[in-house]
Each structure stands twice: as structure tokens, then as C-alpha cells.
Amino acid sequence: MGRYFAKRIGMALVTIFLVTCLTFLLMNAVPGSPWLSEKSPSAATLAALNEKYGMDKPVYVQLMKYLQNLVKGDFGVSLKMQKNRAVTSIIKEMFPVSAKVGAIALAWAVLVGVPLGCLAAFKRGKLTDSILRVVCTLGISMPSFVVASVLLVTLAGGLASLKFFPTIFDPALGWRSYVLPCFSLGFYPMCYTARQTRSAMLDALNQEYIKTARAKGLKNGKIIFKHALRNALIPVITYLGPQVAFTLCGGFVVESVFSIPGLGRYFVQSIQNRDYPVIMGTTIFLATFIILMNVVVDLLYKLADPRINLTKGD
Questions:
Q1: Which spans in 142-262 are helix H?
Q2: Which helix (H) or strand (E) holds 163?
Q3: Which of 1, 77, 87, 201 has the least CB density, counted as fewest CB within 10 Å?
Q4: What is the DSSP letter of 160?
Q5: Is 71 buried (19+), middle (13-18) or exposed (0-12) by CB count in 10 A?
Q6: Contacts (Cβ under 8 Å, ≥6 apart) of 24
């Protein structure tokens, strides 16, 4: 087990290194500059700013300097949006907001999606199964910004008679401020989880051990939730690993639609403003989170099915 995790850590470090280099090179290859705006500064001012932040040097020199600082835990400072503020400080402030919204969205997506998938599998070929398949197909076909827009129009003031929820995220309003963004962010994962659960559950229900359990006279509820669901969760866990990272780090579009002061919305704004250190810091943070969740998924595999050998193939 120790050898396995040592190997995974090594692969994770290589992956983060490649992500960092590729993002840095692509970012610097795009025409433009953080200092250019509607009122562009003079050539002398541009030269002074580039010299101050080391942007006057060749790209490979800038990359080496950034990697050296990154090893020390220094992600640099914001160039424009919160000028000279440390990127790590920005992430620490913004991430909890995104994480809270994302955790609520993911929680309801799993708690609703898994039972719906089980129900659809148990009612295979019946009206309930057909309705759930139509809803889930629509859910995975609609982008999150479409869901958010529909909810805004119908439940947040677009229609004169329906103004149940605020159009702009405001924690001071309590739970009402979380309903629409959490639903918009969790609707796609819920529908995808339900489809995955249904497919995996159908495979599990056709296995010999399920037929044996039925022959012994076990009730359907016990067969589904105690025997079949455990094996059916493996593909669901595979999907939820990276999805957790993306959701907790913020739905970029959803946060922008509802003006949520989270990491996702700030990341979009940093791209628009070419705030290079913020772009780099957020990208590395997300990549690290995804890698971490993949390791967690491997551990959950072992819990879901003790027969899985994590060290196999080493």
C-alpha cells in the first residue's frame, strides 16, 4: 500500500509540473498584456511595469523563476484585480464560498441521483423509468447557465407573480440565497449520477448472486440497497471523484450568473483581465484538487469492494 501511494504521489507531482508549464506557456503565447486597457499606458510605463514584475525577461526565464517560487509556496501577487495582494490569500478567501455552494449542490445531487437511479433500474421498462430517463437526458443536455437562466426567469423575478428567490447571491438572506445556484450547479451531476446508477444497477441485478438472494426469499429493498448498490456504486464513485473538485472549486458560469463572490467567478474575471498570477494559482489549485480526489476515489473503491487490489500491477 505504501508503495502504491508513493507511486501516486510521484505521478501527481509530475502531472502538476506539466500542468504548470503548459498553462504558463499557453498563457504567455496569447497576444496581449495585463497592462493594456481602454487607456493604454505609455511605452515607458509599460517597460517599467514589465521590469518590476519580471515580464521583460524571456518566457523560459520567467517560467523557471515561477517554478522556484512555487516550490516555496509562493504563487505570486495579483497584477490588476487586487493589485499586489498574494494569490494564496485570494484563494483562501474565495474558495470557502465556492466550496459551501458546491458542497450543498453535490450533496443533493448524490442524495437524489443515486435513489432515482435505483428506482429507475427497479422499475425498468415502466412509466417511472421512462419519465426519469427523459428528465435525466434533458438534465445532461442542458448547460448549467441555461438551467440558471430558466430558474431566474421563473422563480426570481422574471415573471411578475413569482419572486421567491433573490436574483443575486447574498448570504445575509439565508437559505433562500443558496437554492437557485445550488440547484443549477447540482442538476447536471444529479442527472448524470442517476443515469450511471441505473446502468450499473441493471448490470448488478443480472448477476448470479442477486438471483441467489432472490431465491432465498430476500425482500427487494434489501437486495437493491444491501447487495446490488454496493457494486453499482463503483462507476458512480469514478465519476464523482473529479466532479467533486470541479464543483467545490466553483461553477464558473453559475457563479457569474448569480454574482457569487467565489473562486470560479474570480477565475473567469482574472482571465478577462489577464491577471496571470491569479490564472496560474487557480489552475494549479484546481489541478491539485482533482489529483487528490482521484486518490480518494481509489480508497473508496477499496471500501465499496474489498476484493479490489490497489497494488495490483505495481
A1: 144-155, 176-205, 208-215, 220-222, 229-248, 252-257
A2: strand 162-163
A3: 1
A4: T
A5: exposed
A6: 59, 62, 63, 66, 280
DSSP helix/strand/coil, 33: coil
pLDDT, the chain, mean: 81
Higher pLDDT, 283 or 246: 283
Residue 86 DSSP class: B
First to last CA, the chain: 10
How far apart CA 300 and CA 11 sit, in angstroms, is 19
pLDDT the model gives residue 190: 92
For residues 81 and 270, the answer to whether their CB atoms sit within 8 Å is yes
Residues facing residue 240 across a β-bridge: none
Q: Can you tell me which residue has the cell 437493491? A: 224
Distance CA 273, CA 287 (A): 22
Cα–Cα distance measured from residue 185 to residue 175, given in angstroms and rounded to the nearest whole number: 15
Cα 124-126-128 angle, rounded to 5 deg: 95
Cα 37 off chain centre by: 31
Report the C-alpha gap between 192 and 116 in whole angstroms. Answer: 11
Beta-bridge partner residues of 77 = 86
Q: Give the per-residue pLDDT at 112.
A: 92
Q: Using a CB cutoff of 8 Å and minimum separation of 24, what contacts does 40-47 make?
A: none
**pTM for this model (two decimals):** 0.77
DSSP annotation of 110: H
C-alpha cell at 250: 466553483
Angle at 307 between CA 310 and CA 112, to 5 degrees: 90
User: Is residue 310 classed as helix, strand or coil in its secondary structure?
Assistant: coil
Say how many C-beta atoms besides its own lie within 10 A of residue 5's C-beta.
14
Q: Which three cell numbers stand for residue 267?
A: 477565475
**What's the pLDDT score for residue 160?**
46
User: How far apart are alpha carbons 116 and 33 in whole angstroms?
Assistant: 49
Decide if 251 contacts 264 (C-beta within 8 A).
Answer: yes
**Structure-block grid coordinates of residue 9:** 504521489
